[in-house]
UniProtKB/TrEMBL annotation:
Active site positions: 266 (proton donor/acceptor)
One record GO biological process: proteolysis
Domain Peptidase M14: 6-299
Protein name from the UniProt record: Blast:Carboxypeptidase B
Keyword Amino-acid biosynthesis appears in the UniProt entry: no
GO terms of molecular function: metallocarboxypeptidase activity; zinc ion binding
Cofactor(s) needed: Zn(2+)
Organism this protein belongs to: Drosophila guanche (Fruit fly)
Gene Ontology CC terms, in alphabetical order: extracellular space
Similarity remark: Belongs to the peptidase M14 family.
Amino acid sequence: RLGTERFYSHGEINQYIEDLAQEQPRRVFVKTVGRSYERRLMKTVTITNGDGRRNKNVILVDGGFHAREWISPATVVYLIDELVNNLSENADLLLDYDWVILPVVNPDGYEYTQLSEDTRMWRKTRKPSSADCIGTDPNRNFDFHWNEGGASDNPCADTYAGSNAFSEPEAQVVSDLIHSHAARGKMYLTLHSFGPYILYPWGWTSDLPDTVADLHEVAQAGFDAILADTGTFYEIGSSTNKLYVAAGASDDYAFNAGFPISFTMELPPGGTGFDPPASAIDRMVKETFVGIAAMARKVVQKY
Ligand code: 0X9
Ligand code: ZN
């Protein structure tokens, strides 16, 4: 296990999943699915129960969209740890499902925030987007109602939508993952901070999907489990109604592509908001895992 005493670099996280695949070659598979603008390798880890059965349903999880939200990759690492190393407790979550996990969607930004105090609050990617400004908001860069609201045309803004949909290689990688798993994909979960919120579509309109009752039921399972475990009170609802309009995000994209359940989980705040101290990692990731497991359990029962 990587441990929860500190935050890890993108390279350490990649090495960790490679090590897991080496140790458990029948259960854990690592695949390079693309490269970031600065050419960092983007790798997914697929976790199975090792029974060799193909074409199971899929739960797709990602973290690290926004560079400064370090608790997100930390939570993904703990999730991977639990699924791989605690199979007895989580056997039901892997019986008919495989988990496909991309720990850090925006590795260039993530590494940039680890350079210094001055860069700690960076949000976007790191590709130059104009003569004097760098970066696009990867969570405004998806080709579904792209740039229709809650996104900026200004390359210097923190919510810059990009020159066009999928201008960022990192967003294209997530899109490819979504499409390659859409046929069997039952839940898409993208981890952000800070909330705490469990958000479901839509985030581009205040209208609710026809299947809002299903979305709410699964979110409620996560809410109930976390409240019972630690007393943390999440808010549940549609992105637009609970938070704000923000079009071109990955959750709406995955839902539209066929995932019946799609959530943005905004993890609780810490420090000044986006920067909980390392001493908070352990309790935060364990709490979040309880919620994710409860939502997955509900999905496994429903679909
Ligand atoms: O604005 C975002 O991208 C997310 N919040 S954050 O503070 N982590 O940046 C919320 C995205 C919610 N989903 C949609 N609006 N579709
Ligand atoms: Zn975010």
